[in-house]
Write a structure and sequence with these properties.
Elements lengths: L18 H15 L6 E7 L5 E7 L2 E3 L2 E7 L3 H8 L2 E8 L4 E11 L2 H8 L4 H9 L9 H14 L12 E15 L7 E7 L5 E6 L2
Antiparallel strand pairs: 1-2, 1-5, 3-4, 4-7, 5-6, 6-7, 7-8, 8-9
Helix pairs in contact: 4-5
């Protein structure tokens, strides 16, 4: 029989007042059990006509302020976030039978933060940020490969590849975070945190 926390949930929910602390604990568990990309998440955005779009991206950092990912700012998601800065994230860790859903608003990270992360990327990835006009139509694959070759010639010193102005990071500032654990007969366990108007987190149980 599973041990329970003070709310009657499986003790994997712990008893945290701040959901970021619980997220960190769950992410650390996922790193032990997920063989590929425990930091992968489905990112939902919508355009000016409220048409939704979702794709997988990688979480690169998180802290009390929010959840950070990087992209070409002129890509579909980049343009959608510029026009409608509301977004949603969903992490699913199949090995743990857990998921985390996050809703909030986004803003660009500072140039300093973007530069620091960009410098940690491999040479090919930094070149790719220049060469790929993400989400634009290609006439053929050779067009992209030719662009990659062009920027490799331009930035042939692997230690000196500047970050393009069109490539940066977004931080999703959460308004609510829900933690979900698979349950027998679909009687799942759900715990939701909502940030109030003065910045405090309030938590409640949800029916499955």
């Amino acid at each position: 029989m599973n041990q329970k926390n003070s709310l009657g949930l499986n003790n994997c929910f712990l008893d945290k007042n701040d959901p970021i602390d619980l997220f960190e604990a769950w992410m650390n568990e996922a790193k032990k059990t997920e063989s590929n990309d425990p930091n992968a998440l489905a990112l939902g955005t919508s355009d000016q006509n409220n048409s939704p779009s979702v794709r997988m991206v990688l979480l690169k950092d998180f802290n009390k302020d929010g959840f950070v990912f990087y992209t070409n700012l002129n890509s579909q998601k980049g343009n959608e976030l510029k026009n409608n800065p509301k977004a949603a994230m969903c992490f699913h860790w199949k090995s743990l039978l857990r998921q985390v859903r996050i809703n909030g608003t986004v803003q660009k990270v500072s140039d300093k933060v973007a530069d620091e992360y960009y410098s940690t990327r491999g040479y090919e990835s930094r070149i790719g940020a220049w060469a790929s006009k993400q989400s634009s139509v290609l006439s053929n694959r050779d067009e992209l490969l030719s662009s990659i070759d062009k920027y490799k010639k331009k930035y042939n010193n692997q230690n000196e590849v500047p970050r393009p102005d069109h490539w940066s990071g977004w931080i999703l500032i959460p308004k609510n975070i829900e933690f979900w654990l698979d349950g027998d007969s679909r009687i799942h366990e759900r715990l939701k945190y909502i940030k109030d108007d003065v910045g405090n987190w309030r938590k409640s149980l949800l029916s499955p």
